[in-house]
Amino acid sequence: MSKFTENYIITMSDIIREGDPILREKVQEVSLPPSSEDIQELLCMLQFLKNSQDPILSQKYQLRAGVGLSANQIGLNKRMFACYIPQQNSAPLEYMLINPKIISHSASMIYIPESEGCLSIDRQITGYVPRYKRITVRGYTIHGEEIKLKLKDYEAIVFQHEIDHLNGVLFYDHINKNNPFELPANLDIEPFI
């Protein structure tokens, strides 16, 4: 039985760090419908993200703020992740997705000018990370129902970052090795502001 139950509080000591082989593995698909263990783990992951964005709880548990967490970031070899994305004028977007897959994407791209961050990487890494501006993702809910999500801008960036994790890819793999602030040529690409 996994320790990551709904009542377990994930702290930074549970987060797998850069250098651990599981962060470079393509993780295994989750059997459907998801088991109660899978569901508990996802609920626990989502709660960590909520706690990490809460000023009082993040200070109490010494958490770094995060918007996404993939299962292999807590050592689980499972294709699933949770997201908790703040919104300007509405409630945060929250997702728990099983076996997610990008099924289509725009030609146009986007990047975060100050680079991306990752809970598994403790060092500062700068450089542009090109991402698709719009994506369509297919996956399954914790109830085993298939869903399709059309995402753009920041939400699309977060989902691509997490799906990369499930494929053993880290965000800095996308940064130009010779010039971190050089964007791919001949592409429709713009900063996300």
What can you see in these coordinates?
The chain has 193 residues and is of the alpha+beta class. It has a single domain (12-191), classed as Peptide Deformylase, CATH 3.90.45. It is 20% helix and 23% strand. It has three helices and eight strands, in the order H-H-E-E-E-E-E-E-E-H-E. It has helices at 36-53, 55-60, 153-166, and strands at residues 68-70, 80-85, 93-105, 109-111, 131-132, 134-140, 146-152, 189-191. The strands form two sheets. It has a five-stranded antiparallel β-sheet with strand order 1-2-3-6-7. It has a three-stranded mixed β-sheet with strand order 5-4-8, with helices on one face. Strand 6 (134-140) and strand 7 form a beta hairpin. 37% of the residues are buried.
- Uncertain residue ranges: none
Number of strands: 8
What is the CA-atom radius of gyration, in angstroms? 16 Å
Termini Cα gap: 43 Å
Mean pLDDT: 96
Query: CATH homologous superfamily?
Result: Peptide deformylase
The CATH topology name reads: Peptide Deformylase
Helix content: 10-25%
The number of distinct structural domains comes to 1
Short description:
This protein is α+β, with helices and mostly antiparallel strands and 193 residues long.
